[in-house]
């Protein structure tokens, strides 16, 4: 009788422990889904406002462009000022290009269109666009020769996510007087991994989730860079995580399912980020 009671108590204890663990896991999953829903709702609201702002900004940007192109060749413009005006003209052109890209990205997401490029061409385009945005940046691009010619389908929003991460990395490096950032891309067994490295102070708590939408730790930040990058990773079935790099600074890793980027698979499941097995880098 005592043996039966002990066995029943043991089985009941194991069952209760497993049930409690399952409930905790489900609560964490629901909490994470709730956080994502709130984040996506905020992003949708910002996107709606951004669409109106983009339409309104087109006219003043056109006016600025016209005035700058008149001032640059003017005889009364001294050479140092002329160089500054040329830089301003480049930035105005970049702003106009960003507005056009916003419209193109939105159309591509609605239509489900993806551009196909080699991995090397894509990351070089990202760094080129980043250099236009932040001319002072010293960007180190790391790409293996065997990955450079890998053809990948570029989902809408991926380029903006990487540029946002590079922009955040440069801001972090600037806190310690550096202009160095690094972008690496490599294919693993089942995933494509992008790494963005800065030379700043690093994270006080690397396990902390990205900043809340609209809340930034920078004086002039908008608080949307990391949130948008994480939302892009979630939408593409990947993940985004952060850690402090060896030798100082921080590193952000964006991992995406490789098969989803290479081609469509007829009826076959696409691996998620949980199945990504990136190769270790030295």
UniProtKB/TrEMBL annotation:
Q: Where in the cell is it found?
A: Membrane
Any one Gene Ontology MF annotation carried by this entry is: phosphorelay sensor kinase activity
Q: Can you quote a single GO CC term?
A: plasma membrane
Please give the Pfam families that the UniProt record associates with this protein: HATPase_c (PF02518), HisKA (PF00512)
Q: Which UniProt keywords apply?
A: Kinase, Membrane, Phosphoprotein, Transferase, Transmembrane, Transmembrane helix
Name this polypeptide is given? histidine kinase
Asked whether the UniProt record includes Phosphoprotein among its keywords, one would answer: yes
Which reaction equations make up its catalytic activity? ATP + protein L-histidine = ADP + protein N-phospho-L-histidine
Domain Histidine kinase, by residue range, is 52-260
Q: Which Gene3D superfamilies match?
A: 1.10.287.130, Histidine kinase-like ATPase, C-terminal domain
**EC number of this enzyme:** 2.7.13.3
EC category: transferase
Q: Which organism is it from?
A: mine drainage metagenome
Say if the entry is tagged with keyword Transferase: yes
